[in-house]
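Sample 3 of the quickstart, ligand zinc ion:
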Amino acid sequence: MRPLSANDLIRVWEIGEDQHPLDRALTLLAAAYPELEWEDLAALSVGQRDAELLTLRERICGPKLNGFAQCPQCTECLEFEVAVADLRVGTEPDEAEEERELVTDGLVLRFRLPSSRDLAAVPDCQDPAAARGLLAQRCVLRASRDGAPVAASELPAEAMAGLARRMAECDPQAEVLLDLRCPTCEHCWQALFDIVAFFWAELAAQVKRLLREVHTLARAYSWREADILAMSARRRQFYLEMIT
Ligand SMILES: [Zn+2]
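Result:
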């Protein structure tokens, strides 16, 4: 993973701003891993992808992360801080495309873990259970009962639910839940942590701050954008203090 410069961050933001979150995630990783092909990044399991994004996010924004959530009971908005280290769950799979097996209710399912490509193939649907079912179905390589093949589309709902659970166990980083507690009404709940949405919001804020700095310095000193961005943050900050 190579470090991203101020200029890289702006370029990633320019490209990703109009992209679907799935592509944004890969645009971020492609900037950090220029030696890898887009297809290789798309083939990472969702948990592998998110672990990489978490590392990249930590290098750019630091080890702590500040978020907001709304209490589902009293609608109070709360701010929380979480250490990136606490968002790392379990160990990642070595090989996303490795064939795995689940035996359930007399069925033998051979499957692989979902990747960005699989997520992209499942239409955005309102019902998370239906989406998980479609995703699981896509990742079934072979299914059989008593040696006779069974079509993935004909697998019973319980088997698909079991498969979705097994996939989550094999790729724990793909679904990170935050334990939250409302300070006002003391309600406790779990919220899904979406690293792509979170990181993108932070990156967009950081890029806009950078561009404002460029604007202020260019106007005061007539320096070129490239020269201002090539400075260290500390040096830019010093000049900004001189003019404000
Ligand atoms: Zn509350």
